[in-house]
Design a protein that fits this description.
Helix content: 25-40%
Oligomer: single chain
CATH topology of the domain at 15-150: Glutaredoxin
Largest sheet: 7 strands, mixed
Shape: elongated
Radius of gyration: 18 Å
Distance between the termini: 50 Å
Length: 201
């Protein structure tokens, strides 16, 4: 069994087998190539095709896909279904009509185990979302049970925050930070005075 990646780890150079809905073809997405292109990678693991919450999540992501790309990120959904099942599901489920990002196939569970979302008893994945920065470092991990779907707007907000602090390493983003909002610069003068600093706008 492979070691599970932890926050801050460098993600190995991985090739992910995919179904590409945009051109209706099978292919491979290289995390190494995404890194070499200076882009972010977002892996969104979900339990299974032909289920119930999963298509709502993938459709939600599809609505924001171009926003993710404008921020320099590639989005890849991943489950333990094969690429053939992805193709069939994409063709059958109307909610997936606008999905254009690659749909990763991890039938062996190797990738899912590496990211700590694989359930050995079922062979399915937990809902896991992982942000990998352009240096290949894992900067965000979110894993939850199967019965509650995620929110693409919140994922997009987190990406914007990570992009901002990557460009401004002396700053931090407070809770509910939105692009263009007030950031903080840690230092002795800020200790015990965060509220006042935020009020100054």
């Amino acid at each position: 069994m492979c070691d599970v990646l932890r926050l801050g780890d460098l993600v190995p150079a991985l090739d992910i087998e995919v179904y590409n809905p945009k051109d209706h073809e099978f292919g491979v997405v290289s995390l190494e190539q995404i890194r070499e292109d200076g882009r972010w990678a977002i892996l969104v693991f979900y339990p299974a095709d032909f289920t119930f919450v999963c298509p709502t999540e993938l459709a939600d992501l599809a609505d924001k896909y171009e926003d993710f790309r404008k921020l320099g990120a590639e989005l890849i959904s991943v489950s333990t279904d094969t690429k053939f099942v992805h193709l069939a599901w994409h063709g059958d489920e109307k909610l997936l009509a606008n999905v254009k990002y690659p749909m990763g196939a991890d039938a062996s569970g190797k990738l899912s185990r590496m990211f700590g979302v694989y359930e050995e008893t079922t062979g399915l994945d937990r809902r896991g979302t992982f942000l990998i920065n352009p240096e290949g470092r894992l900067v965000s991990i979110e894993i939850s049970f199967d019965n509650v779907g995620r929110n693409a707007d919140e994922l997009l907000r987190k990406l914007k925050a990570h992009v901002h602090v990557a460009a401004h390493p002396n700053e931090v983003c407070p809770a509910k930070w939105e692009q263009g909002g007030k950031t903080l610069t840690p230092g002795a003068k800020l200790v015990g005075n965060v509220g006042d600093a935020l009020k100054k706008g």
